[in-house]
Each structure stands twice: as C-alpha cells, then as structure tokens.
Automatic annotation (TrEMBL):
Gene3D superfamilies: Hemimethylated DNA-binding domain (2.30.30.390). The lineage of its organism: Eukaryota, Viridiplantae, Streptophyta, Embryophyta, Tracheophyta. InterPro entries: Clp_protease_adapter_ClpF, Hemimethylated_DNA-bd_dom, Hemimethylated_DNA-bd_sf, UVR_dom. This is Hemimethylated DNA-binding domain-containing protein. It comes from Arabidopsis lyrata subsp. lyrata. Keywords: Coiled coil. One of its GO terms (molecular function) is DNA binding.
C-alpha cells in the first residue's frame, strides 16, 4: 500500500515538492496520523530493495559510460541543450498528487473493510480536499477556467463600451480615450483565453497514454503518462527549453513522459513537445525501468506499450486502447 508522511515529503530524490497550498491544507497532525509514515514517491523503492540497488548501479555505470550520440541530434546539441532542459517539476508534482489520491482512496476502502467507519470518514474528507484542489489546479492549467474567464472579460467589455458611449456623449474625450485603451487590452486578453479554452476542447494527440516513444534529439526512450494540448509550463521554462524554436512552438501538444532509468537515471519526468517525439516503427518490447511504472500502469500489452490504470485514463479523459488483433501472429 502506498504510504506518505505528509505532502511535504512527496519528493523524488529530494528535488520536487507538491503544491504548497495543497500541502498547507492537508499537513495537519490528524492528517499525518491517518496517512502514515512513508514517502509516496519512494515507496516503490522501499518495497523493492533490489530495484533501489539496481537504480544505484545504473547511475554508477552512467558515470563511466562514454555517451553515444543519437543520429538525429544536432539542433539541440548546437544550442547547448541537454535532456535536463525538459525536466519538469510541475509535471512530477502533478504525478505525485495523483499517487496521493490513489493512496487515500485505497485507505478509505481498507478502513471500510475493517468497519472503521470514523477513520474512513476522516480519510474521505481528506480525499475530497485533495480532489478539489487537484481539480482547481487542473482547471487553471488546462483551460477549463479559461472559458468562464473569457465570458467575464466579455461582460466587462460590454460595460466599458457603455461607459465609453456615455463619455463620448458628454464630450469627456480624455475619459473616452482611457476607456478605449482599456477595452482594447481586455479584447486582446479575452482572445488569448478563448484560444486556450478552444485548444483544450478540440485537442488532438498523435500519441496516447502508456505508449513507448523515443526523443528525436536526445534519443532516450520514454513512456507517455500525461498530456496537454499546448505547453502549460512557465515562460521561463519555455525560454530555457527553447520552445519557440520548435517548428510548432508552444501551440502544440506537450507530453509528460517517464524516462527510462537505464539511460537517464536523473531525469525522472520530462515535459516534451510532440515535435520532439517519435513512435517506434516496430513494437518496443525491451525492458523499461522507472519507479512510477507500477503505480500508473497495469502492465504491458502485446505490442510492448503500457496499459494505463483506469484512474489515469479518467484524469485525461482518454479511451481505452485496444491492440489490433494480428491473425498472422497466431498462425
């Protein structure tokens, strides 16, 4: 069972922390006593000591290994970029909060099975808080709130236009000029938020949850664990990753991907543009190491891709993928 001391301990390799607001809301003594005493993101490693030692040996080998260049590498290398430029703390935080939700839901069911109804109710209340905060964060990130924001701006524009007409009728041209500038600013902002909301409603993705891919520039293998129709990272992150130099810039799908620990043990979660990802020509059935795999996927399908858990599919509103039946393989 996944356990956690508090949301302040939800880190991977001590580098990433979850939302401070969510942490402050839930990091009470009551919540801590109900939730347990272990770190969610590192529980898999504690459960499997052999994996932990394997992870350490991977990192040691990489220190001695001569780095081989991926054939497509060029643009990134010339610009001085490396895989760490696409490291995303917000993406990792998003995954850790998802783990915490799964853990609380499991604990609620466990308490119910033991007929500990008071504890189950307290856990359910904490789970509701986490879910509400997660939804709020997702709405702010993914444009669900952009539609209502655009509507609010539209109402403000209508009122300002009425004020503008009154200012013109009263020949207060100084006020009219000021109102006109304010209307122009609101119209530009309204257009931007409307475009964001539209992008999320009409999103089309080339890749799916659980699919194994390869990075075009850096060559590492990755598995999709999340997706956005446009880049939702900060402007400073986009500048560091040189997103605007991509063929489609920031207005294209971006994917949260788990990176194979055998090649890049320090790059846990990356946020990668669709332009930078390639699907393998043949099924990739090679081993893939990552501490999050057992939490996010049921296992691998016959094509070698991972099968996302139901809750992950529901989070991104993605359908279940069925592997096409190949009669030749049976023969």
């Amino acid at each position: 069972m996944v356990q956690s001391q508090s949301l302040s301990t939800l880190t991977i390799c001590g580098s990433v922390k979850v939302s401070s607001l969510l942490r402050n809301r839930l990091n009470s003594s009551k919540a801590s006593s109900l939730i347990g005493d272990r770190c969610v993101s590192c529980q898999f490693l504690r459960k499997s000591p052999s994996f932990r030692s394997h992870w350490k040996s991977i990192k040691q080998r990489n220190l001695l290994r001569v780095e081989a260049r991926w054939p497509f590498q060029g643009g990134g290398g010339e610009q001085g970029l490396d895989p760490s430029s696409e490291r995303s703390e917000s993406a990792n935080e998003d995954i850790l909060i998802f783990f915490f939700q799964l853990d609380l839901a499991t604990r609620v069911q466990y308490a119910m099975n033991l007929e500990q109804y008071d504890i189950a109710q307290q856990l359910r209340e904490k789970l509701t808080e986490v879910e509400e905060e997660s939804i709020r964060l997702q709405e702010g990130k993914r444009g669900s709130s952009a539609k209502s924001e655009a509507q609010d701006k539209g109402i403000s524009i209508i009122r300002l236009r009425a004020d503008l007409q009154n200012a013109i009728d009263s020949e207060d041209y100084g006020l009219a000029a000021k109102l006109r500038d304010e209307i122009s600013k609101l119209e530009a902002e309204s257009l931007a938020v409307s475009a964001k909301a539209l992008a999320f409603e009409n999103a089309e993705y080339a890749f799916r949850l659980g699919q194994k891919l390869r990075h075009k520039t850096f060559g590492y293998r990755a598995v999709v664990c999340g997706m956005d129709p446009i880049c939702c990272e900060s402007s400073s992150w986009m500048e560091a990753a040189e997103v605007e130099k991509l063929p489609r810039g920031s207005n294209q799908p971006f994917y949260q991907v788990l990176v194979d620990a055998r090649t890049h043990p320090d790059l846990v979660v990356a946020y990668v543009a669709e332009d930078n990802l390639l699907a393998p020509e043949k099924p990739d059935k090679e081993r893939f190491d990552h501490p999050y795999i057992s939490f996010l996927y049921y296992g691998a399908d016959t094509a070698g891709d991972f099968i996302p858990v139901k809750q992950l599919r529901e989070k991104y509103n993605r359908p279940r993928h069925e592997v096409p039946f190949d009669s030749q393989e049976e023969d």
